[in-house]
User: What shape does this take?
Amino acid sequence: MLPLLKRTLPAAAASLMLATSPAVLAEQTQDTESLNFIWIVADDLGYGDTGFNGSTEIPTPNMDRIADAGVAMTTAYVSAPVSGPSRAGFHTGRYQHRWGYEGNVGPQDPDLRGTPTDILMIQEYLKTRGYHTGLVGKFHDGKGEHFQPYNRGFDEYFGFNNGASAYWMQTNRNNLIYRNDQPVDGEPEYLTDAFGREAVDFIKRNHDKPFFLEVSFNAPHAPMTAPDDYMEKFDHLGNRQTLAAMISNMDDNIGRILDKLEKKGIADKTMIVLFSDNGGKWEHGGTNGPLRGEKGGTFEGAIRVPFTASLSGVIPAGTRSDTMISALDLFPTTVKLAGGEIDPEWNLDGKDILPVLSGETTESPHDRLFWRYSDSWALREGEWKLVQHRREEAGLYNLAEDIGEENNLINEFPEKTRQMRQTWQEISEEVGAAAWGRFRGRTDRQMREG
Assistant: This one.
């Protein structure tokens, strides 16, 4: 049998956490059992549209339940400002640029565009440790058969592999929604409700074995539509009405998942992570709170996302952390919690963030984070961020003092600008060129100075 993570009973673990690190805690235990893992991924959920990040317009009591039971990370990033490459990054723990995955795949070259099968994904790794794996919802990788979720390590799959889907799919006439490798005849429920139903059913059937479940809602991504009873709750919000209704409905379905874990008695041995694949979109009513920009760029509003995680007895309840982390970190953190070791040949860019989540340290495991998407790019190094957003003038910002990226310091700190620009270029060359899109075959990008 593969070695399993050792964990204390929750009450004992809470007291031990005061005196020892998570690594030691895992050894000083009496009971041995496998953790379960649930990743809840929202689609285009803005930084400012959750209660645990301060929203008062859209109640999210169930997302807040996760934060109340664990930690809310205020400086969590994804590796791309749009869905496909962001997901390729967090599924693999690597900058997706390493195989040229800079932008969404699209329908062209279906057998070539996507995450290569020799790049290990988290669900594929967990299967080697005896986990039962499931995906409910959106995947958004390559279109070829070898890229499909049922060929990439998911034992069970209900959802779609595309950038977007209709929410009312009674006929499934375009064969978009699949159960495993077969299109379903149709889906009578609003799609977010259907994903909630399927996630609850997965837990019901697999609660007695170690499992990994990714629940990847496509809400609140377009097309913007929601059930009438949810729309009525927010008829006072104007252009944010539909978005609010979609988020509220998703939150209720998250509550169904949390309730099922509690009913089955496995909440205390399940790590739950909730985050968005990228920032919110203004056109659809999304808000990114104090952050500048929106989905599709490289200002903070595109790449800094709502993020919370809970694990009873290991992550202290009701805490907040400003430490910089990345969704890339979920891969190595999950590997370690599942009792595994990081293979250097994986060439991961993500880091084990359990010491951060548990409060053992406030130091970021990253010296810097890198972004490159079309003609936009950025580098964060400590509190400094150098950003080129499309055709705008490049900017240098101190995020500790200027979270909204309003005070451009590029002229005041020319040497810092030069050093960060050079570092960005070195990383860009090291991760490799885009494999498709406007900048195919290129690692260079323009920097526009005023």
User: Anything to note?
Assistant: The radius of gyration is 21 Å. The first strand starts at residue 6 and ends at 7. The domain at 6-357 is CATH 3.40.720.10 (Alkaline Phosphatase, subunit A). Residues 1-32 have pLDDT under 50 and may be disordered.
